[in-house]
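Hey L., structure's done. Input below.
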Amino acid sequence: MAGRTAFPKPGRRRFWRSLTLVTSIATLGFAVFAGWLGLFPSPPDHTPVAGPAPSAGAAANDATDPHRTAPRPGPGRAARSDDRSRRTAPATSPTSAAKPSTVTIARRGSGKLALAPGGTKPFGTGPLVRYSVEVEDSLPWTPAEVAKIVDGTLADPRSWAAAGRARFERVASEDADLRIIIASPALTDDLCEPLDTGGELSCRMGGHVAINAERWAFGADAFHGDVANYRHYVVNHEVGHSLGKGHAQCPAAGRQAPVMMQQTKGVDDCLPNAWPLPSEL
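Output:
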C-alpha cells in the first residue's frame, strides 16, 4: 500500500491558506487597534547598553573600571536628585590646622581648565614622565593647591618613583606626557568617554587622568573619611595605569589592598591603602 503523503490535497491546501491569511489579517488589525488604545506598554525611551567587560587592557582605558551601564549611585551613597553635592570636606592640606569647611560641587562646572603654574625638578629614577596638573576653574581649589598634593604624592618614597618605576617632573604645559585633571562630574564623564563613569568615578584615558571632583572632595567609603589618604590613592591608582599597571584584587582578608585595586568601589576584606605594595613595584 502506498505511503501517506505529509502534504494535504490541493483543495485542502487552498482552504488552509485562505484561513491562515484571514487569521493573520485579523491579528494584525487587533494589534494596531490595541496599540492605538495603549493596551500594550511602549518601549522605554532609553535602554542602558552594557559594554565589554574590562580586560587586561583596562590599564589603557580605566574608569576605576566602570561597566558601561546607566549611571548609578556613588560609592556607598544613595542617588541624589539635585544638581549639587554639599558636604563637609577637610582642608586642602592634610597638615593644615584649618577647620573642615562645607564644599559644594556642582555636577557641571565651567568646562574651562586652569593649568598649575611652575613645575618641579625631576625626581625618582627610571623613564621620565612629564606631567601637568589642571583644575576646572569653577571648582573650589586652585591649581597650585592641587599640584602641591599631586607633587607630594608622586615624590613620596612610597610611590611609583620608588624602585626605578618612573621619574616624574611636573611642567606647566598642556603638551605634557600625562595631564592630571580635577574635573566636575559632568566634565569627568566627557573626558572619560567612551567609558561610563556615571558622574561618580575617575579614569585614565590615553594621555590624561580625569579625577572626579566629588571623589577629590569627599573620598570614598572604604577610606572612612580619610580624604587626604584617598587623594594619595586615586593619584597613585590612575598614574599606575599610565605606567601599564592593571587592576588587582584583595589578596587575603586583613591584608592591605593593592593600590591597583578598585578601592573607590570597596576593599572587600582588605584594608584601604594609598601606596603601591612591594609586589606592585
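The first strand starts at residue 61 and ends at 62. DSSP finds five helices and ten strands in the chain.

-- N.
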